[in-house]
Amino acid sequence: MADIDTKSGPSITPAVAPPATPKVDTPREVANKSDKDRLLRAIRMSLDIESATVRSNTQHFNKSRYRAAANFPDYDALKDEARAIKDKSIAALPDLIQTLKNSIRSRNGHVFVANTAADACRYILDVCRWRAAKMVVKGKSMTSEEVHLNHALEADGIEVVESDLAEFILQLCGEQPSHILAPALHYSRERITALFKRKFDTELPLDTGEELTFFARQILREKFLHADVGVTGANLIAADTGTLMLVESEGNIRLSSFAPPVHIAIAGIEKIIPTREEMAPFLELLSMSATGQAMSVYTSFISPPLADPPFAMPSKPLKPREFHLVLIDNGRLKMRDDPVFHEALNCIRCGACLNSCANFQTVGGHAFGGETYSGGIGGSWEAGTSKLENARFSELCTGCTRCVQNCPVRIDIPWLNANLANRLNAIEPSSATKSLLGSMTDADPVDRKAPVSKQFFGNYHYFAKWGSRFPSMANSVDAGRAASTRTDSKDEGNNSFPRVMMEKWFNVDRRRTLPAFPKHTFVQQADNIEPPSSKGREIKVVIFADVFTNYGMTNRGIATMNVLRELGVDVVVSECVPEGRAAMSQGMIATAKQHARLATRELDPHISDGRDIVVVEPSSLSMFRRDFAHLLDSKNRFERFKSRAFEPVEYVWKILEKTGRKPAEVFDISKSKVGHRLFYHAHCQQKTIGAAEPTVRLLNEIGFDVVTSQVECCGMAGSFGYKKDFYDLSLAVGADLFGQVVQQDRDGGTRQLIASGTSCTEQLHAGFERKILHPMELLETLIERQKESDKVAKDTEDAEVEADLEALKRSKREASKS
Amino acid sequence: MIDLAATFEEHATEAAAMVWRVKRTPVALRDVVALATSKAQGIVLTEPEFLPMPLIDGLRGLAGVIPKPHDDELATADVGITEAFAAVASTGSICVSLGRPLVAASCLLMPLNIILLPKERIVERPRDLFNPDMFDGESLKRNLVFITGPSATADMGPLVVGVHGPHRVLILLLE
User: What is the distance between the alpha carbons of residues A736 and A509, in angstroms, rounded to a whole number?
Assistant: First the structure.
């Protein structure tokens, strides 16, 4: 062992200064995301610090909700009932406010309708001053966060105590909520322990949730008993009786409304519904959607002021009870008049849209959220109650639609976010480059202010068309890229000049491998295949040549055509036209409408000819089934296409059922070239429109051993994963899916990957160097090989007949000779 | 026909409440409460509205019962005994009617909340208590709290039972 000179010691001074540690943003620093830079910093911060805890907690809520909903007998009916009550309430809002005022005043309560956040704070401050309040205890209230109530009270010297444990944590660390239901969801137990030790300077162990809870409880119990004013929110308010519905688990809201002599409830005007009876459907719906519980621990229905005397302590004499209801407008009436954003007023703040969102699961509300509201629905609320630019974080909504079926009041949140993107595009400055690009791509003139990268992705069909005309040249852009470096964190990507330029101009990340253009498009290939005679083929279909199949994964289109023809269907292929998906994903709604009209005009004659539409790409099918409701001119027009559009495997089922055949009779698993073990990843939008289950069922009935992915979305989401801004987030989301594949491979050997969506396939390719099949490609191998064997049999039969004929001729020749 | 009591018991237990079935006699009730509160220093007892007074009278003599508690005694008592207004089988929830003296405190402030539930006041689903015909429409007129298990939080990492409200909820299902 070498001696160490203890006098001078080993040299610890490096020859060069170490690189400066990059500054880590705090959530508060990046709360306001009105500029893009803060949004990107917030994503980095969340991925670095909060992601693991957020993912674990949101996925737990999400799974619990699915479990609860599956066991709920009349879930959909309850949702319809709740939605109808909300619609009715918002329509009658001015009258309901008046009715509610009368109800509260008849019970000797006070009501104040605050037009602005400042008005609300001023009124509450006046009440506190009038009652000489020194301390206010608060239950969790997002509305009080929205109006910055704590700041207003503290500025006047009043102590504000957050009593919800999550809010208590946030108050200690000075952060904004990261989830509308569980505001400190991003904090792990370990981080809370460190925070408490630092803030309270304690040597107590605080190493378990129980110890932390007990510690906080002791502090807060004293506060409850001595507070002068209690502030709560309200989940709903009944206009007829002035009843507040208060939902919670900890008991702090009950204490805040019961212990202090003055109770102030603060709520947005959209919380009012006509009657107490109509609170019934929300009672079960809210807790089930929020946490998957049948009921939250406490749900109170109180019409304050309460009859019980408030709490009195020897040091705090008994005072009479007083109740104030502060109703907040702060932009809500303007939202009510907005043709799109009035939808957001239906929100009951359950958080289901947050928990079911793959991006939210990965970064939480400090990236996918603003000052107060977060997640998919949060953008509309930030824009409605503050300013449009504050909703920039809604760009993290990829339109995957997984929130749609999980929203208990059926809000089409992706549509709201497409509109936010649309309005954000509209306030961008114009430029000659943008106008030129818009003109080249024939984008609607109102969408030509959208950023260049959005115009590129929104008009992908235009660029794909040109790329497919010169496939060798277009594909050379990505030549020489080592596939194995795709998910390497040190990967700098493809530094070829075209890729560098694509990144600079169009925000296409250099690290993402581009899809290859085929030598011939799907339509061209289909044209070169001689169709069988249409005679006797009663079922008629047009395959919609979507942009992604036509210029990208043509094999799945051809496979679909071949399988349907083998099943006796008369199949034609449409021309390739955009249907609006790409444009809508970039907020270019006018262009999306234009594309939707193009697609439907292309398909009209086919429908009139009695053909059903088969759409290979799930995101395109979702346009026909869902989004055309917003984009086409009439409901009838939407219904015409919705009722006729099918996913390929869905359509296979339709044929099998019509012809009374079983899957295993048609598709022979023994002919499978990829074994029997499959890992199937359904596309997010395909799941939402209910078009994923038929594939799983068919593969199972054929005899495959099918494992399905348990993620909401793969993270690619069309253009999202290509964008430099979001590439890291996209791969972080994808890590869940990759992990599941690896796990399944470990349990019994590699499974064949099957995916229905183009972008899902791209994302899986980023994780695995394997062949990934579309379900129809797999089915084609089963049915095609059967066709080959039939052909062999027929050839043999023909040869035998030929031999017989030859023998006959020979015997005739011999007979004539003799 | 659904067995409301059995369904309630199943779901209340799932929600981390304890359910004991008890005969509706003063002696049986007193014995059970005595067992559950054997180590309690302070017990807060509320007056019944639906159960007969003699049934409750047996509890007044139990050790630890505070006859007329002051508010500072409420803050330090161990046990609150509350009568249920109703219960919901599908969720395992107890519904307590607020307003009568000590009721709100008895089911909120003490670590152990014992709830007396007459079997006939169990309804199938929460929404039944919003039906004007149920219990003469009383459930639409009163201040109510639905209690589904002990207070809990997931804000401190893992799920912790026992926060600002009771840590344990014992439901005595009176048959």
Answer: 21
Which is the CATH superfamily of the domain at A73-335? NagB/RpiA/CoA transferase-like (3.40.50.10420)
Tokens of A380: 């509309």
Give the closest-approach CA distance of B64 to chain A in angstroms: 21
Chain A partners of B158 at a C-beta cutoff of 8 Å? 189, 208-209
First to last CA, chain B: 18
Nearest chain B Cα to A166, which residue?
B155
Total number of domains in chain B: 1
The H-assigned helical ranges of A204-314 are 209-226, 252-258, 280-291
Residue B122 has which token pair? Answer: 């169990």
In one letter, which amino acid is A454? K
CA A348 to chain centre: 18
**Higher pLDDT residue, B161 or A22?**
B161
A336: how many CB neighbours lie within 10 A of its CB?
19
Ramachandran bin of A617, using left for φ above 0, alpha for ψ from -120 to 50, beta for the remaining angles: beta
**Tokens at residue A749, please?**
């050997």
Name the residue among A530, A521, A528, A569 with its Cα closest to residue A549.
A521
- Give the C-alpha separation, A699 to A695, whole Å: 6
Does residue B6 belong to the interface with chain A, where contact is any CB pair within 8 Å? no
- Residue pair A36/A391 in contact (Cβ under 8 Å)? The answer is no
Question: Which residues of chain A fall below pLDDT 70?
Answer: 1-22, 479-491, 784-818
Task: Say if the Cβ atoms of B144 and A301 lie within 8 Å.
Answer: yes
Note the pLDDT of residue A52.
96
Claim: this prediction has a pTM higher than 0.80:
yes
Reading the block at residue A303, the tokens are 């019409």
Q: In what order do the strands lie in the sheet with A645-646?
A: A570-573, A540-544, A612-615, A645-646
Of A390, A395, A409, A401, nearest in space to A358 by CA: A401
CB contact under 8 A, B101 and A57: no
The DSSP code sequence of A432-494 is: HHHHHHHHHHT--GGGTTS-HHHHHHHTHHHHHHHHHHSHHHHHHTTTT--GGGTT-TT----
What ipTM was predicted for this assembly?
0.98
Q: What is the CATH number of the domain that holds B74?
A: 3.40.50.10420
Nearest Cα of chain B lies from the Cα of A279 at a distance, in angstroms, of 8
Is A549 in contact with A556 (CB distance < 8 Å)? yes
| Helical ranges in A660-774 per DSSP H | 663-666, 684-688, 693-702, 727-746, 758-767
Range in A19-23, A313-317, B66-70, B89-93 with the lowest mean pLDDT: A19-23
**Alpha helix stretches (DSSP H) within chain B:** 4-14, 26-36, 53-57, 71-74, 103-106
Nearest CA in chain B to A183: B155
Tell me how crowded residue A612 is: count the other CB atoms within 10 A of its CB: 17
Q: What is the DSSP letter of A279?
A: G
For A262, the enclosing helix (H) or strand (E) is strand A262-268
pLDDT of residue B134: 95
